[in-house]
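Batch manifest, entry 17 of 40.
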Amino acid sequence: MEARIQLQSDWWTALRENEGEVWVSCKIPGKPTVYGSLKCQGVSCDGIPTVTASEEFEVLQISKKSIHLSCPSGRTSSTFIIPYTSFPKIHDKSITCLDISSGGGLGVSTSTDGSMKIWNCKNGDRRRELIGHIYDVNCCRFFPSGMVVLSGGMDAQVKVWSCEDGTCPATLKGHRAGILDTSIVDRGRNVVSCSRDGTARLWDCGKSTCLAVVADCGAPVNGCCVGTADNSINLGTPPEHPGEREVGTEDKLLLLAREDQKLQGVGLQSRTPVFEFHGSDAFNCCTFLSSVYVAAGAQDGNIYQLDLRCLSTPVQVFHRSGAPVHSIIPVREGFIASQGDGSCFIIQQDLDHTIELTGPDADPVYKVAVWEKCIFTCCRDGLVRKYQLSSL
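Output type: structure tokens
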């Protein structure tokens, strides 16, 4: 565990007032937490405050939307960024999942109010509600076309939706319990779903049929991700009869984040296990960082970075807090992760510091989505937050 700087969630509002003050702290492994403060000494005509730090911290840089702080005793620094804008009126309650279309114009999100909605990414205006699931909708994502949505619900159904008119041309039935996550294979002819029933299923969207139960884990599968694996990784032997092979599943590896503390890899075409990695707690989410590197987040706050060519020891284990890791997605030479304590952060190999996306006050950030230089998050407080980063 590395040292971690934490900053008051409403820091930007407080520091825009003359003599406004906020708290800052740094948790250093094996040492007492360092506490300090930041104080505004005035605001320039262009809206940028002059901020001084107590002796334990340093202000390295400040702009209209961010502040870069260091803690010399912890040998660490972090850049804290506020949202470019927030959308408070998309849903009435906590927002549990979201995704952004390939063109960046539309968003889709689900909520504990039981709704799933399409909205405008620029202003948050609601465009359409997708109605058809019974009970809550757990997950949603756009197909690569950007005009079709895939969703999974507590009703054990996977549905395909048209964004243009809100119709549901395909409903995929076969799971025996709620759907927890989905993944799309290439352009979307085939999709994968995982469920509380412990299975992962491969579907043909056009025929609305289940092609195979790819894995039966005996424990809920919380997350899944399909990616292209390096040629050096043995994905198993495909079925002997060509008719049993699904176009587009060649050389694809399916990652499964399992409740029983296992991250599993399955050859999507061979339907045979490729590996099992045992973690310290239930896995909640997983993603491909490249054709050889993957990352997975666990309930105890651990984030594992693994090399598929050598799974005996993780490349790295990140642990910033004991809060559950809810979401993890790749970005450039790194990843963005969100946790149950309200933190959402970016770790990149070419940066010597962490980027913190601030705003939630200890409310879990359930999902993150990226489109070009924009990052969208959804939170228990019912807000969709939009951040803009020039470095993405």
